[in-house]
Every structure is written in C-alpha cells, then in structure tokens.
Design brief:
Blueprint (H helix, E strand, L loop, with lengths): L1 H7 L14 E11 L5 H9 L5 E11 L4 H4 L3 E6 L5 E6 L8 E8 L18 H8 L6 E16 L5 E13 L2 E14 L3 H14 L2 E2 L4 H9 L12 H14 L1
Antiparallel strand pairs: 1-5, 1-8, 1-9, 2-3, 2-6, 3-4, 4-5, 6-7, 7-8
Helix pairs in contact: 5-7
C-alpha cells in the first residue's frame, strides 16, 4: 500500500480536469473500503447531505478472450445509469499520481435492452481509439456489476467541491460473485488539501481503508476464476499515514 501511495505523491497536488457524465475528462478519486459494521453509519452520513440521491448502476465489462484491454491497463463497460440510460465508458491506466486516469463517456440511449458496443464511440480519445482499432479479436462480456450508488456533492473548506459516492452491491463473474461496499471521494474542483482532510476524518470516524483495486481489476480477477480477497481491514493506520503524506504534499 505504501508503495502505491509513493507513486501517487508524484503529481496529484496540482489541478486536474473534473469528471463529466458524458465526454472526455480525467477522473481523480480516492476509493475507501467500508467495514460491514460501519456501512449503515456511512450511508446515513451520505444520505444526510443536501441533494443526496440513489442511482441503480448495472454494468457489463468487455475484453478479448486474452484480456488485451485489461493487460494494457484499460477498461471498457456499458452501464445502465437510471434516468441517464446507457453510458459506454472507457478508462485508461493510472497516471503518475496513482489516482487519476483518462476517461471517456458516451451516451448510448435509454432503451431497455443493453446496446451493442460502439467501437467508434471513443474516437475523441486518441489512445482509446487506437487501442480499440487494434484489438486482435472480438470484445466479449467478461463480468458484470450490480451496484446501488448513493451519491451527493459537498463543498469543503476553501471552496473545494467533492462528490461522495457510496457503492453497495456485487461483482458478478460467471457463477462467482464478490461483494462491493466502498466510498469514493471524487475531486471536482478547488484545492486538494481539503479533500485529504475530509478523507482523514471519514477514515477515523468509520475505520475505512484504502482500496487500490478498481472494480474492473477485481472483476477481471473474478472472471479468471481467481479469489477476490477482502480489503486489508488492519490497514487503518497505514491509510491515515498515506493521507497525511498527501496533505503535506498538497
């Protein structure tokens, strides 16, 4: 975990482009696993924020039989996002800061049935377009997610805006499944230091720990028949130390 954060410290103190529902952006977020005993309290905290709402998220992730996208650090999904309908998303490898990654989203309509992949939906992101144009075999469903997301935005000290997203549900790979219970703090704009202060407060209050594995990484492991171990619940102190490092560098 400390190695992951040493990599992360190299560049996330400066501004990044905020995430958009549809279009191209850079996503910067901190993902924290929630112990079962604290899930209710974290949910109550997010639900009490102004504008909090619940969104059902049902996603299918795609790759080749040889995991060409995953091996290159990319993830491609089609996700049902409630009123927003279907959104096709591609995300690239982590950048030098260890937290942010290139992302492109394309609206794919509101029909009840999942649409077919559009291999040109991400042409605005040249790296993604080149990757998809060069895949050696068809892209097929690999695993899915069934998530209920409770989300709200909050303005912190200094005008920093963040989105809190509580995800609860399951990763689904073949006949296997793995639970999901995590809180994502996504930076929208403003200084980064208040984000780390808020993260530290939540970690101390609820015993949260860093979850460096994305849902895509865990889902691909599940699809390969590998066990998806739980988060390291003994790493609260290491999580606080890592956030403290971030606060000093912000």
């Amino acid at each position: 975990m400390r190695r992951w954060w040493r990599l992360a410290r190299s560049g996330a103190s400066g501004p990044a482009r905020r995430r958009h529902t549809v279009g191209m952006s850079t996503e910067l977020e901190l993902r924290l696993a929630i112990p079962a005993a604290a899930a209710g309290a974290v949910a109550a905290h997010v639900a009490a924020l102004p504008g909090a709402r619940t969104v059902p998220l049902r996603a299918t992730y795609f790759d080749t039989a040889s995991s060409a996208l995953g091996r290159a650090g990319w993830g491609l999904r089609l996700r049902w996002e409630g009123e927003a309908g279907w959104v096709q998303t591609i995300k690239g490898p982590l950048m030098a800061d260890g937290l942010s990654r290139p992302e492109h989203n394309a609206a794919r309509g509101t029909a009840a049935e999942r649409p077919a992949l559009d291999m040109h939906a991400h042409d605005a992101l040249p790296e993604a377009a080149a990757l998809l144009a060069g895949v050696p075999s068809p892209l097929l469903p690999q695993f899915g997610t069934e998530i209920e997301r409770l989300r709200a935005q909050r303005t912190l000290a200094g005008g920093t805006r963040v989105e809190l997203a509580l995800d609860r549900g399951h990763l689904l790979g073949g006949s296997a499944s793995a639970p999901v219970c995590e809180l994502e703090l996504e930076w929208l704009d403003g200084p980064l230091a208040p984000l780390w202060a808020e993260a530290e407060r939540l970690v101390r209050a609820h015993g949260l720990v860093l979850e460096p594995r994305s849902k895509a990484a865990r889902g691909h492991a599940l699809a390969r028949g590998e066990a998806v171990p739980p988060a390291d619940w003994a790493s609260v102190d290491a999580t606080l130390a890592a956030i403290s490092d971030w606060a000093r560098s912000a």
